[in-house]
Design a protein that fits this description.
Largest sheet: 7 strands, mixed
Number of strands: 18
Number of domains: 2
Radius of gyration: 20 Å
Helix content: 25-40%
Number of helices: 11
CATH topology of the largest domain: Quinone Oxidoreductase, Chain A, domain 1
Strand content: 25-35%
Length: 347
C-alpha cells in the first residue's frame, strides 16, 4: 500500500512515497478508507527524528484523517461500512489507572497516529473503534481532516489545563499554525478576551477574522513580547498565555503574567530548553503548565462544538495526493495560516 513519508530521518530531501503493508482490522478495530489527511508540526519532528521515539520504517506521515469506513472487525458497533468518519489520533490502552479514571491522555502507553504508528497520508488506516467518529455533516472531508489534533489540543490546553474563565485575558503566541488558530476559537468560546501576538502583522490581523479581540506584533529588539503584552493588558498582566514556540518566548511569557496567571505550553517549535526567573513565578503565584492532546470526554466535547458550528477548522490549503511533497513544504511559507490538507484518491 502506498503512502507519503520517508525511509530515513532527515530533512525535506528524505520525503517520498513509500510502500507499507495494507492493514487489516482485528477485533474491535475499524479500517477507514482515507479521503483527506492533514499535516501538523509533529510531522516535521517525526521526519527529523524524535529522541527516544523509535518508529517503523519506511514510515507514513500524518496524524489527522477523514474518510469512509471500509471494514469493521468483530465486536464493532456504532459505525458501519460506507459511513463518513473522522479519526481521533490519540491512542490509549484503556486498561491502565489513568484510563480507568477517564484521563486517557495520561495513559503511560499513549501513542499518536503518525508519530508512534504509521500515519494517515495513505489509502487505509486501522484504529480501535473508539477512535473512529461520525463526521459532522457541516464539515467536508478536508475540514474534518483539519480538525481533530489541533482542536483537542486547544480544548484541553485552554479549558482543562489553562482553566480559562469568562473575562480572562488570554494571549496566544503565534498566529499562523493550526493549533493557535484553534486556541483563539476555543478561548473565545470559553468567554475570554483574546489577543494574538505574532511577529507578522498580516497574520496577527488575520487572527481577528477567526475571533481574536486584538492583535499585537512583537520582535526581540524594539518590541519584546513581555513588554508588548504588559502594555496591552494595561500593566495588569495576562491570566493565561498559550505558548507553543518554546525557548525564545516562554521566559518572556512568564514575565507578562498577572498574579495567579498560567503559561500553558503544548510544544517547543523554536527550542525545548528555556531559562525562567523563578522569583517571578513564586512572587506572582503564577505557573507554567504542560498540556498535550485530550481525554476521550474532551474530544467528544470538541466534536459537539464542531457539529454545531461553534468551532470551525481553519484550512490554509488543500493539495491533491500527487502534490503531498509540496503540501508538506508549505510549513515554511511565511503566509501559512491554518492546516495543510492532502486529498487522497478513492481508487
Amino acid at each position: 500500500m502506498r503512502g507519503f513519508g520517508f525511509r530515513e530521518h532527515g530533512g525535506f530531501d528524505r520525503l517520498e512515497f513509500v510502500e507499507i503493508p495494507e492493514p487489516e482490522p482485528g477485533p474491535g478495530e475499524v479500517r477507514v478508507a482515507i479521503r483527506a489527511a492533514a499535516f501538523n508540526r509533529l510531522d516535521r519532528f517525526t521526519l527529523a527524528g524524535i529522541p527516544g521515539v523509535p518508529i517503523e520504517r519506511p514510515h507514513v506521515l500524518g496524524s489527522d484523517g477523514a474518510g469512509v469506513v471500509d471494514r469493521c472487525g468483530d465486536g464493532v458497533s456504532g459505525v458501519a461500512p460506507g459511513q463518513p468518519v473522522l479519526l481521533n489520533p490519540g491512542i490509549w490502552d484503556g486498561t491502565c489507572e489513568a484510563c480507568l479514571r477517564g484521563e486517557e491522555s495520561l495513559c503511560r502507553a499513549y501513542r499518536i497516529l503518525g508519530e508512534h504508528t504509521q500515519g494517515s497520508v495513505t489509502r487505509y488506516v486501522v484504529l480501535p473503534a473508539r477512535n473512529v467518529h461520525p463526521r459532522p455533516e457541516r464539515l467536508s472531508f478536508a475540514e474534518a481532516a483539519a480538525a481533530p489534533l489541533v482542536f483537542q489540543t486547544a480544548w484541553r490546553a485552554m479549558k482543562t489545563v489553562g482553566a480559562v474563565r469568562p473575562g480572562d485575558r488570554v494571549a496566544v503566541i503565534g498566529a499562523g499554525g493550526g493549533v493557535p488558530t484553534a486556541v483563539v476559537q476555543v478561548a473565545k468560546l470559553l468567554g475570554a478576551r483574546v489577543v494574538v501576538a505574532s511577529r507578522s502583522r498580516e497574520k496577527a490581523e488575520r487572527a481577528r477574522a477567526i475571533g481574536a479581540d486584538d492583535a499585537v506584533v512583537f520582535d526581540e529588539a524594539d518590541h519584546p513580547l513581555d513588554k508588548v503584552l504588559w502594555q496591552w493588558s494595561q500593566k495588569n498582566g495576562l491570566d493565561v498565555i498559550f505558548d507553543s514556540v518554546g525557548a525564545p518566548t516562554v521566559p518572556r511569557s512568564v514575565r507578562a503574567l498577572a498574579r495567579g496567571g498560567r503559561v500553558v505550553v503544548i510544544g517547543a517549535t523554536a527550542g525545548p530548553v528555556a531559562e525562567v526567573d523563578l522569583r517571578t513565578l513564586f512572587w506572582r503565584q503564577s505557573s507554567i503548565r504542560g498540556s498535550t492532546m485530550a481525554d476521550r470526554r474532551e474530544f467528544d466535547q470538541v466534536l459537539g462544538h464542531l457539529a454545531s458550528g461553534k468551532l470551525r477548522p481553519v484550512v490554509d490549503s488543500v493539495r491533491p495526493w500527487e502534490e503531498a511533497g509540496e503540501a508538506f513544504r508549505r510549513f515554511d511559507a511565511p503566509d501559512l495560516f491554518g492546516k495543510v490538507v492532502v486529498e487522497v484518491p478513492s481508487s
